Amino acid sequence: MEKSPGLVEDIHSSNSQMGSEKGSAPAAYPEHAVDASGQPVYDDAEVRRIRRKIDWRLLPMLTFLYLASFVDRSNIGNAAIAGMNEDLALTGGQYNLALTLFFIPYVIFEVPANIVLKHMRPSWWIGIITTAWGLVVTFQGFVTTHEELYAVRFILGIAEAGFFPAAAFLLTIWYCRFEIQTRFGIFYLATSSAGAFSGLLAYGLQFMDGLGGKAGWRWIFIIEGIITVVAGVAVPFVLPDSPDRVKWLTPAEKELLQNRLSQDSGTAAGKVAVQEKFHWGALKDAMLDWKIWFAILIFWGTTVPTYAFAFTAPKIVADLGYTAANAQLLVVPIYVLAAITTLVATRMSDHYRIRWPFIVFPYCFAVIGFVGLLAIPHPKLPGLTYAFLFFIPGGCYPGVITMVGWLGANLAPTSKRAIGIALGISLANAGGLVGSNIYLEQEAPRYWLGYGFSLACVCTGIVATLALRFFYKSANDKRDRMSEAEIRAKYTEDELLLLGDKSPLYRYVL
């Protein structure tokens, strides 16, 4: 039996069914012990041991791949101050257009990509798209005109579109709802780490300027792209698919895992389907679910400000009077704080089994930063300007990853969850289209539009979070007033499974 320590410390009871699993089971499972209501109970230590096995095999690879994906889409900001704009004779408008072109296909292709995901092994699909975008990033180091840069950025958006929704969905088929947020936090830690990592790597790669007759900014794309290609080739051999496919879980362990996932509906009597095939009705259900569309307003509270910031942060710091190389390094501590706040918020969200406060409170932190940046008489007080920059990713990043977990936790069955997550994330990333165009060169160093529009998005996200929380609470209260006997008299077990999150036995996570 595996004895290694867990990659993720277990911060709550393994019984994720809101108190429906108590006691311990005998060693011989899946013939579980049952409680007074006939529901199975599990040995906490055994569940933790299995979860650690999953953590070690799933999280490191997914986290690295997301780090690569965010670095590869945002390293254009590092290249810009390392000489790319001058060498390609880019105007401010042309640079912003290059940023924008990435997001058009990125938004369009996320939902189709997750439909493909339901028809093939996740490891193969993720491996294919990772290799593809790594090649595109490598080719970006060879562009000679702004038209070529436009084309490469557009193709990069197509290649990267499927990764994040596929990875988010993959996590939901391995973990219960009050286990997943901490894992999402570790996975999304790659985003906050990407800003720091990209700055350090770009700083080092700039010193390759002239090597092989190529400018330093070209090596930023070439080296980072090659690293991604190598990772993509390795994915099918490293990344596990669904629990029923892997060989490192015993049949009994698989049975325990599948039982816990199917019972993860928020009530002792409720169940959700976890292995159903994709059907087109799931697409309709997701498209017509207003809660997914409403959640996009919350996502935009992060995606607009953070994409805009990721592309512009090196230049904002450079505008404070630092050299390009030093500006790359000074961005690093900003993202280190974001990594810390993301981990703290996600762990606390799982511990207290609640989501909405860990969107609202971090967003309030970001509000302080944007108000401060708007109030400072730029270009005076550069030290204070730099200090307020810490509030932006530090407040926005925890909110978006909590929202991803909140959305996934309230969608069932898995076909609807796959489409719903992809739809929510794809339209959330439309915020990148806006964020690419709100920090205008002619407004430097004040960036009234950039800071002001971002502030409006964060405030809208706070209001939308409180409204969605009100709906979920009202729906749960209404379902609580129905007895199980009434529900069973009206629906068959198959009908309840088909209803998914609409089932009267299902409870929304707040």
TrEMBL record:
One of its GO terms (molecular function) is transmembrane transporter activity. Residues 1-29 are annotated as: Disordered. Keywords: Membrane, Transmembrane, Transmembrane helix, Transport. It comes from the Eukaryota. It is found in: Membrane. Residues 58-479 form the Major facilitator superfamily (MFS) profile domain. InterPro entries: MFS, MFS_dom, MFS_trans_sf. Pfam families: MFS_1 (PF07690). It is a multi-pass membrane protein. Gene3D superfamilies: MFS general substrate transporter like domains (1.20.1250.20). The chain crosses the membrane at residues 58-76, 96-117, 124-143, 149-174, 186-205, 217-239, 292-313, 325-346, 358-378, 384-407, 419-439, 451-472. One of its GO terms (cellular component) is membrane. SUPFAM superfamilies: MFS general substrate transporter. PANTHER family: NICOTINIC ACID TRANSPORTER TNA1, PUTATIVE (AFU_ORTHOLOGUE AFUA_3G03820)-RELATED (PTHR43791:SF18), PERMEASE-RELATED (PTHR43791). This is Major facilitator superfamily domain-containing protein. It comes from Neohortaea acidophila. The lineage of its organism: Eukaryota, Fungi, Dikarya, Ascomycota, Pezizomycotina.
